[in-house]
Structures are given as structure tokens and as C-alpha cells.
Amino acid sequence: FCRISPACSKPKYRGSLHCLKVIAKEEGFGGLYKGCSALLCRDCSSSAIYFLTYSALCEWLTPAGRNKPGFLVVLLSGGFAGVLAWGLATPMDVIKSRMQTDESDQHKYKGLVHCARESVRKEGAKVLFKGLGLNCIRAFPVNMVVFVTYEAVLRLTDHYTNKK
């Protein structure tokens, strides 16, 4: 991403490596890990929901007597799992992004909880759901494809494993 100074329209960074170098110089090694706590909270909880939802929906939608979900079941289960996971992940994603874009010379946020409190205090609870609609619109088709690919790889490895 690129931060643009309000004083001019010139980007602060000239690329990924330049960004890395500038952040390390201005903020030290720790500057490269801003937002890490929010990222961990986001990914741990949403990943758990993601896989549990997929598994539960596949099991629920698969007809009795079949041991593997069909193509349509995989598509729907994957899509809904992605949407639900992003529904849970979006608030922490907002906090993570705010922490990461906090300029080193400003230090508006002291940490995850402070960032969340200040954001909600200034903009209301709805701030935590910025981008939720777009995340969900994107998540459904992307995760349909992810789980169709996942199931295809499982079936392919089963096929080759059982041949030997």
C-alpha cells in the first residue's frame, strides 16, 4: 500500500522493499509488526469458524448414504463458510488496518484495545464493519473455488493413494 502525504501528492514509498526499509528506519524492527495482535485475533477466530462452518454445512447438506459431498454442496458450503468467516473477521481487520497505518510520528493508538475504543468512540460501532459488504460479496465466490479445489485435491490424493 502507499501512504500519500497531504502536503504533496508524491507517494511515501517507491515499492515494497523501500517501504520495508523506511518503516524499519523510522520505527525500528517492531514497526514491521504493527497490527500483529489484531491479525492474530482476526485469523485465529475466523479460521476456526471458516472450517467448522464448511464441515458442518457439508455434513448437513450431504444426503444420507453418501460419504462425500457433491459439487453443489461444496460450492454452497464453501461460499457460506467464507462469508461467515469474514463477518467475524471484519472488525479485527478494520482495527489491524488502522494500527498498521498509524504513522510513527503520530502514535494515535497504544495497542489493539486502545485502537478499538478510540475508533468506536469517534465513529460509533459501525466503524468496525467498514468493508463488510464488499468482503462478503468477494468471499462467497472465492471460497466456493477454494473448497472445490480442496475437495478435488483430496479426491485426487485418495485416488492415487488407494491405487498403490
UniProtKB/TrEMBL annotation:
One of its GO terms (cellular component) is mitochondrial inner membrane. Keywords: Membrane, Mitochondrion, Mitochondrion inner membrane, Repeat, Transmembrane, Transmembrane helix, Transport. The chain crosses the membrane at residues 70-89. SUPFAM superfamilies: Mitochondrial carrier. It is a multi-pass membrane protein. Belongs to the mitochondrial carrier (TC 2.A.29) family. This is Solute carrier family 25 member 47. It comes from Strix occidentalis caurina (northern spotted owl). The lineage of its organism: Eukaryota, Metazoa, Chordata, Craniata, Vertebrata.
